[in-house]
Amino acid sequence: MSNYNEPSKNSGQYHSVKGTAVETIGNLTGATSWQQSGKEEHAQGEAEYNAAQAQGWVEGGVDRLEGKKDSIVGAITGDKSQQASGNVQESKGETKQNINS
Question: Which domain of life is it from (predicted)?
Fold first, then answer.
């Protein structure tokens, strides 16, 4: 549904709500084509939202792992800058995972 073949939470929510509205109009008017197209758009919007959420969680996991690695390497080599950068990246990944749980 997103223009760049990447799932988007915003786009998913938009299509979910729009689909529900179209389905409701179809229910009120008895227009079965609107009912069906609304159900389909709602389902596609929910699927896109869930895909974006899963993608965000995975990306957060990658950030956490890379950050942990950099933090450990920095600690071992005495590179405080690398250690601090790794800690920041790990924290960023954890936050991203929490947001997408």
Answer: Eukaryota
